[in-house]
Write a structure and sequence with these properties.
Blueprint: H1 2-24, E1 29-30, E2 33-34, H2 35-58, H3 62-76, H4 79-91, H5 95-128
Antiparallel strand pairs: 1-2
Helix pairs in contact: 1-2, 1-3, 2-3, 2-5, 4-5
């Protein structure tokens, strides 16, 4: 039961940050790509990587997993907005924009996750040993 509480708290905090990002970047675009969902998803990828490195380094920590990885990062990242924005590209027949949008979210998100995970893992090993 307590893990549900941690997911609830983390998810609420992540969703609040997602909402703040949406307000701050409401109408901003980079080369016709809306950046509010992109920023939320990329930030979520980076934070999930760092939290996952901590989780793996220090062993199974149900609170960290529920609060940060599932809750906060899950509340911060936004698949539904990603799909709605992708659908807008399809509606306007902007297939090049759609391709760039999908690649930015997926490839850049994965690359950021991998870089942050490796960096955090090395920093943890240097600071605390294996």
């Amino acid at each position: 039961m307590t893990n549900y509480f941690y997911v609830f708290i983390g998810g609420g905090l992540g969703a609040c940050l997602r909402y703040a990002i949406g307000l701050a970047y409401q109408s901003q675009h980079i080369i016709n790509i809306p950046i509010k969902s992109l920023l939320a998803n990329l930030l979520g990828s980076m934070l999930a990587a760092i939290a996952f490195a901590i989780y793996k380094h220090f062993g199974d920590n149900a609170i960290l997993q529920a609060l940060v990885i599932i809750g906060f990062c899950g509340g911060l990242t936004t698949f539904s907005s990603y799909i709605l924005e992708a659908q807008n590209f399809l509606e306007t027949k902007n297939f090049i924009g759609l391709l760039i949008y999908v690649l930015l979210h997926n490839i850049l998100g994965l690359c950021l996750f991998l870089v942050c995970y490796q960096t955090a893992t090395r920093m943890l090993e240097a600071s605390f040993g294996r």
